[in-house]
Structures are given as C-alpha cells and as structure tokens.
Specification:
Distance between the termini: 100 Å
Shape: rod-shaped
Number of helices: 1
Radius of gyration: 25 Å
Largest sheet: 4 strands, antiparallel
Length: about 140
C-alpha cells in the first residue's frame, strides 16, 4: 500500500479543526475562480455538498456577497463516525465589482457543486467608435 502525505494539507486540516466550522458571524472562505469570457465576467465558487437552497447571493451597489451553509448529513442512532474531513458550517465571500459591470443582469447557475455567476459587461464600458465632426474643406487666410 502506498501512502503519500502532504504536510500542508495536514496543517490546513488541523487549523480547521481548531477554529471549528464557520458560523454566520465568522464564516469560512470558499475557493473561487474569476475570469473574463468575451462580454461577461465569470466567477465560479466551489461549494460541493451544499444544497442550492442553502446558497444566498446579494448585490448592494458594487459589493457582491455569496453565503452558503453545508449542513451535516442526518445520521441514524447506529452510525459511528470514523473520519470527518469535509468542512461543515457557513461559508462566505465578498467581491467588489467594477462599475463597468451590469449588476442588474447577473445570472447564477449551480451544477456539480460549482456556483457560477455570469456578470455582463455594461454597454457604457464596451469599446465604441467616435466619429469626428467638423469642416471638411480648408479655408485659406489672406492678409
């Protein structure tokens, strides 16, 4: 049998055990990716094992807040836990959105434990061509 150890994973798990699960007043952070895809800004949050009804998304001005809670699985009287490494409790992440994003049209999708938010780039922030107006003929100054 081959065993591999990762000392950083062990430290992370130890810190999580000492701090305990996240609460609504002191939530744990959730991992995320953020990138631009054409005319959209995409933010993906890892929330495996979280029920969609336990996810809350708010936008106030330009502050995006995502909150989620992973609850323990109901166990019977005969169940004895041997190992519990998956974190439980509350998770939260806040992101300041640029003024160039259209927060009125955010779309949210939750699939396979990943919450994906698609935020369109505002029309006013897209590049546009400016036409120049003025006289097209030259005038000669005589004196």
């Amino acid at each position: 049998m081959l065993m591999r150890t990762d000392s950083f994973r062990e430290l992370d798990r130890l810190a999580q055990q000492l701090m305990g699960p996240g609460t609504w007043s002191r939530p744990s952070a959730m991992p995320m990716d953020a990138y631009r895809d054409g005319d959209e800004y995409v933010v993906a949050f890892d929330l495996p094992g979280v029920s969609p009804d336990a996810i809350d998304i708010d936008v106030e001005r330009n502050m995006l807040t995502v909150r989620a809670e992973r609850r323990p699985v109901a166990k019977g009287d005969d169940v004895q836990m041997e190992l519990s490494e998956r974190p439980l409790g509350a998770f939260s992440r806040q992101i300041v959105l640029a003024d160039t994003l259209d927060t009125e049209r955010i779309a949210a999708d939750y699939e396979a434990g990943v919450l994906t938010l698609r935020i369109p780039i505002a029309e006013r922030a897209k590049p546009r061509k400016i036409t120049i107006s003025g006289e097209s003929s030259r005038k000669e100054i005589s004196g």
